[in-house]
Amino acid sequence: MSELSGTKELIFDVFVELTSTLGYENVSMRDIAKKVGIQAASIYNHFQTKAHILEYAYDYYTKHLHDNRQPISLVKKLIETEDAQSIVEAINYTFESEDNKKYVRMILITKIVYMRLFQDAIANATFAETIKNNTEYVIDILTHGVNIGRLDPGFDREIFADVLIGAKVVMGIKAFSDSDYVAHQLEKELRILALFTQLLSSALKPKYL
Q1: C-alpha Rg value of the chain to the nearest Å
Q2: What does pTM read for this prediction?
Q3: Fewer Cβ atoms within 10 A, N terminus or C terminus of the chain?
Q4: pLDDT at residue 182 above 70?
Q5: Which has the closest alpha carbon to 185: 109, 105, 92, 49?
Q6: What is d(CA 151, CA 141) in angstroms, rounded to the nearest whole number?
Q7: If you average pLDDT over every residue of the chain, what do you get?
Q8: How many Cβ atoms sit within 10 Å of the Cβ of residue 108?
Q9: Is 135 within 8 Å of 165 (Cβ atoms)?
Q10: CA 77 remoteness from chain centre
Q11: Closest C-alpha to 155, from 144, 165, 171
């Protein structure tokens, strides 16, 4: 995918903002052009159709989804020596970034994906792949903990990963259904993560040597 800059970037950001608020079907090229301050025909110099802008949004989301996720090799090192809270915090990556524009884009595109889950096969596939990837990431880390003797082998890694990732999705959907939602971590999410920390802590053995 080509990088964003200039007018193309403005068009894309306005599309994402309007679509995440009004819904894809309720946003026209004319609406986008008006907010950007250009003629509607000028959009076609950058995107062939509105559907192509949506496709670009999905591509952008997939490309940057794991930018803030800790490398799995690093988190495997953490599970060898650190406490449950440090491990859960490392697993629980967010979109927060010094690049606020990118941060907001990722939040809004996530909202679009959630909104279009039952309307758009690409959104559905993107969502499913995200869940699968994140769940496998958590299971791989926990399995390493079992293999080195740090984590109780009876600890149900698959259930823990499924519920942890599922809880984050549910909290995201609840947040996006609130018209007053702003892009930051929710207090309820912090309480949920504290519960997962307690669960993991109960299965952790003394630090691996």
Answers
A1: 20
A2: 0.84
A3: C
A4: no
A5: 92
A6: 10
A7: 88
A8: 22
A9: yes
A10: 24
A11: 144
* Interval 133-178: pLDDT, tens: 999 999 999 999 999 999 999 999 999 999 999 888 877 776 666 6
Nearest to 150 by CA among 198, 209, 71, 70: 209
With 60 as the cut, is the pLDDT of residue 48 above it? Answer: yes
Q: CB–CB of 69/130 below 8 Å?
A: no
Cα–Cα distance for residue pair 174/157, rounded to 1 Å: 26
Lookup: tokens for 60: 């952008």
Tokens encoding 127 = 């969502």
In terms of residues, how long is the chain? 209
Considering the chain, what percentage of its residues have pLDDT values greater than 90? 64
Place of tokens 């504290």: 194
Q: Can you count the helices (H) and strands (E) in the chain?
A: 10, 0
The tokens describing 191, both together, are 């309480």
Type of residue found at 106: M
More confidently predicted of 180 and 197 = 197
